[in-house]
Amino acid sequence: VLMAGAPVPPALHEQLAELLGPDARTHTPYGATEGLPVSTIDGETLIETFAATREGAGTCVGHPLPGVDVRVIAISDEPIARFADIEGLGPGERGEIVVAGRQVTQEYCELPEATAAAKIREGERVWHRMGDMGYLDDEGRLWFLGRKSHRVETGSERLYPVACEAVFNEHPKVYRSALVGIGARGAQTPAIVVEPLAGHFPRGAAAQASFREELAQLAQAHEHTRGIERFLFHESFPVDLRHNAKIRRGDLAAWASAAR
Question: pTM higher than 0.85, yes or no?
Fold first, then answer.
């Protein structure tokens, strides 16, 4: 069974494994319209790596497929014309994911600015900038940390959405959470917005204060979330109409800024 479109929770892989029996296999591919597939991970491996995900390691998306080259480069919002100009990163170093292979598109039709922003030339070869952040581990597996445009930069640290949200999603009353930045990038205040499970939205100042204290304790228990001190509650996240798992983070960040 192939599941795609957004990160698939390990619990769903477990449920399908129970329903389909021991001979069934579940897989989640990683890629983009401009380069699909890049890698794939089976449900068993995803479940095995989920302990690290809970601790902020990101989501493992498996080994690159045969014929696909994956690199992690220093994060930049500027166009990169030549592959020789990239700053490549080593195993464990977090950055921007770029891929090359026969499945990677060469350009956007009649959109030269978009092509320049997303494509890197290496002679006749084209590398696609996925717009995602991540890293390669010592086993050559790729880990996903969230969209580059969703990162939060405070001036003293860079926060990755998937790594941070995994910590707060462990709270028993949290349905899902979203890291947003309040203010201009480079001087942002990080905030976690929580959509509580049905029946657990905190009503009143005392209930909200108690919930916030529990979230703050989770934040302090992990080095990469200790700088997060602002927590907000939202009844229902704004999402992409095509896919409920894709949060409209720009809208959520604007809401969080107005809620200060």
Answer: yes
Residues 187-209 pLDDT 10s: 999 999 999 999 999 999 999 99
247 — phi, psi (to 5°)? -80, 135
Question: What is the dihedral sign for C-alpha 130, 44, 94, 229?
Answer: positive
- Please say which residue of 149, 168, 203 terminates a domain: 149
Please name which of 221, 226, 244 lies closest in space to residue 175, comparing C-alpha atoms.
244
59 phi and psi, to 5 degrees?
-105, 125
Q: Considering its fold, how many domains does the chain have in total?
A: 2
Same-domain status, 195 and 121: no
- How confident is the model over 20-40, as pLDDT tens digits? 998 999 999 999 999 999 999
Q: For residue 214, give its domain range.
A: 151-258
Shared domain check, 128 and 59: yes
Strand partners, 194: 177, 233
Best CA proximity match to 192, nearest among 220, 46, 74: 220
Residue with tokens 């302090």: 220
**71: helix, coil or strand?**
strand
User: What's the CATH number where 50 sits?
Assistant: 3.40.50.12780
- Is residue 1 one of the residues assigned to a domain? no
Closest by CA to 86, choosing from 12, 95, 249, 204, is 95
